[in-house]
Design goal:
The protein is mainly α. The protein has a single domain, classed as Lysozyme (Orthogonal Bundle), CATH 1.10.530. The protein is 55% helix and 4% strand. Strands 1-2 form a two-stranded antiparallel sheet. It starts with 5 loop residues before the first helix and ends with a strand.
């Protein structure tokens, strides 16, 4: 069979459309993936945490669903446990500004506690400081091992592709109606 003539071009075009349809990058360019970028950049900058890491944690924890509740009671975008939410002084764990602020502060504390060791900090974010201390590292729980791997995969991918919308001026409104404006 020869690949000449208009039919061959149509088949080739159909082939490329099929390939592009089946191709799924590590992350999609879905609008929800960028919805919280202004808040992420604000709190990441304030807490000295890489915004791509914060975004990766949110992706794995809640897939950008601010109303997410886990079977263990973790709430919001960064899946804060009630004790962490109280410790961080937030009133509404479903408010993206409060949740990302508290989650980023908590992540910053863990990164500092483990002297920048991302594996240990992420394991503690997922399973708790006590578990990481008990096992002197990442606990042997499949959930935690998988969690650390997934967050690092998205973190690397987001950094490589600069997967945060950059603007000259960022803004967001919190649940009390306050409007925030800032730049980097």
């Amino acid at each position: 069979m020869s690949l000449r003539g208009p039919l061959a071009c149509g088949n080739l075009l159909l082939f490329f459309v099929l390939i592009l349809t089946l191709y799924k990058p590590a992350h999609s360019k879905d609008k929800k993936d960028f919805k919280y970028d202004d808040i992420i950049l604000f709190h990441a900058s304030k807490n000295y945490v890489d915004p791509f890491l914060v975004k990766a944690v949110i992706k794995v924890e809640s897939a950008f669903n601010h109303k997410c509740v886990s079977r263990k009671g973790a709430k919001g975008l960064m899946q804060l446990m009630p004790v962490v939410a109280r410790m961080q002084g937030i009133r509404n764990p479903f408010d993206p500004h409060e949740n990302i602020g508290a989650g980023t502060r908590h992540l910053s504390i863990l990164i500092n506690l483990y002297n920048g060791d991302l594996d240990h900090a992420l394991a503690a974010y997922n399973s708790g400081i006590g578990c990481v201390a008990r096992y002197h590292g990442i606990p042997p729980y499949p959930e935690t091992i998988n969690y650390v791997r997934k967050v690092k995969k998205f973190y690397k991918s987001y950094r490589k592709t600069n997967y945060i919308q950059r603007k000259n001026i960022y803004s967001f409104t919190d649940s009390t109606g306050y409007l925030y404006f800032f730049n980097e």
